[in-house]
Design brief:
Elements: H1 3-15, H2 17-48, H3 56-107, H4 114-134, H5 143-148, H6 164-181, H7 186-199, H8 201-204, H9 218-222, H10 230-254, E1 258-265, H11 271-274, H12 285-290, E2 294-295, E3 310-315, H13 318-327, H14 335-344
Antiparallel strand pairs: 1-2, 1-3
Bound molecules: zinc ion.
Length: 348
Amino acid sequence: MTVVEYQDAYKKSHSLNGKIAIKTMKDLKAVFVESGKLAADQVAKTTSAGLSDITSGAWSSIEKQLQSGADLISEALEKATPLTISDAYKNLLNVDNKYIMDAVKVAGVTEITKLGIENIGVGINFTLLQIQAERIYSDGYTFSDRVWNTFFTKGDKKGLPSGVNGDYQYRIKNLILTGQAQGRDSIDIAADIQEYILKGKDEVFKEGRYGKLIPGTGQYKRRITKLIDWRALRVVRSELNASLQQAGIMEGVVNPGSTKLFDWVKTSGNPIDISGSHNASGLRCIDLQRNSPYKQEDVPSYQHPSCSCSIRPQLKPVKDFQNELKDWVPGNNSELDNWYNDIYLEAQ
Ligand SMILES: [Zn+2]
């Protein structure tokens, strides 16, 4: 594998992350549907109980179901996110492993095996998930906060739910209130909830179904997002991107063919990464790319939600790496020998 092939493979592995996130969201969608059914059934019950309006007693039953549904979603998201990261990391790991093993074969070294290299990756995967669980974003929230919070944010985004759990309850509640204000009966509102979860807001509010919104109803409607699972998707993507930036650094650190310098690579086509978004020191992703390469300790940290930039290790010329391998005699105290003792053997 040449350096150029390595770079292409890194890019390709990075481009698969979007698909991996979408697959996770497909699985999570089923949980959203299940949760929505809990709320919808409870709303429908108010009609079968002969209530023309949703009474405060009925509301408290609905709220209980909203909470149960939101908890199902949070649990599923909490489980799915680390698996998603491991899936994506595997692709990255394969690139480094192939690069190393190709050079090992050329050099005819037998002490270093494919399995041995893979064992290094097992340790990195574990560390990545630990970092992911402990990461605190610039807004002060951790992953767990983003999944479970039910309270509303202060400051800039005042009044918006700060976590997926609260967000789900808030949107569905506003949908019920909109329907109620429109005089729709409970059976119809129950159907609206399920349709909203499956197909989105536009489908529910399509022409002819809801009349001209009664004054005051618009504010509820505005509080319903186009898609109920948007927030969960953002959490998955942010965790995935941030973890893979970390993974790029860790892969470079353990790859004996790397120079231990790192490039910040902007994803072409992601407008968020091209302009607009700045980090704390006012640098945009494009500036970070221009300032590459970085030493391990200087690599900028995760920039902004939806930043999909990647971090790619720089490599020594492949011939130099192959010669290092050829010249290596176990115990000769070379850079490679230190790597073999401190990283390779440590991971076995
Ligand atoms: Zn970026």
